[in-house]
Amino acid sequence: MKYYKMNQYISAPSLRVVGPDEKQIGVMSRDEAIFKARQLGMDLILVAEQAKPPVAKIIGFSKFKYQQAQKEKEGRKKTKVTDQKEVRITPFIAQGDFQTRMKQLKNFLTEGHKVKLTVKFTGRQLTRKDFGDRLLHQAVKEVVEYGTQESGPKMQGKLLWTVFGPVKGKKHEEKK
Questions:
Q1: Do 145 and 104 have their domain in common?
Q2: Three-class SS of residue 80?
Q3: Is the N or the C terminus of the chain less surrounded, counting Cβ atoms within 10 Å?
Q4: What's residue 81's pLDDT?
């Protein structure tokens, strides 16, 4: 949470003052600016303390807080959030189930998400890692037009995994 100095708590002797209509009033002393703000029934809020001279704005504090919240909300809208989804399979998966998981993986990639494809080995399946490698190789062939493999297959404990990233511009083509 950001704190703003206002009215008598502003310590700068002279300020560049911006009026309630967003127009610049000019450079004046702190006391003059506070007097002008009180005449209009508003507050004097220090906006840019580092500027030479510091910039203060004449505005109602509640309205100022609302404007700042709107700016922050607008800024959050523009940041793109990409989640990493995970699709899990086993080394001895049935062909129909494999196709279903590939359809799910393709769907995630067209939505613009990164996808981690994991082959989970259980029990004695750990002795047959070549089946997991074969599945990952088959998956790479199936999703070649939807995404690219960003990392090679890695073994971590009982999990063999790789990460796929979406193809740039593919999401927009799908919507059209």
A1: yes
A2: coil
A3: N
A4: 64
Residue 138: which of 93, 107, 170, 171 has the closest Cα?
93
Contact 106, 170 (CB under 8 A): no
What is the enclosing helix (H) or strand (E) of 124? none
110 pLDDT more than 80:
yes
- Residue 70 carries which side chain, given as an amino acid letter? Q
162 with 154: CB under 8 angstroms? Answer: yes
pLDDT in tens, 35-50: 999 999 999 999 988 8
- Give the bridge partners for 114, in sequence order: 84
Q: What is the pTM of this model?
A: 0.53
Residue with tokens 């100022």: 64
The token pair that represents 19 in the structure block:
């009026």
Q: What is the DSSP letter of 49?
A: S
Structure tokens given for 12: 């700068």
Do residues 52 and 13 lie in contact, with contact meaning Cβ atoms separated by under 8 Å?
no
Co-location of 107 and 166 in the same domain: yes
pLDDT in tens, 58-94: 999 999 999 999 988 888 877 766 678 999 999 999 9
**Quick one: 108 and 39 in the same domain?**
no
Task: Please count the structural domains in the chain.
Answer: 2
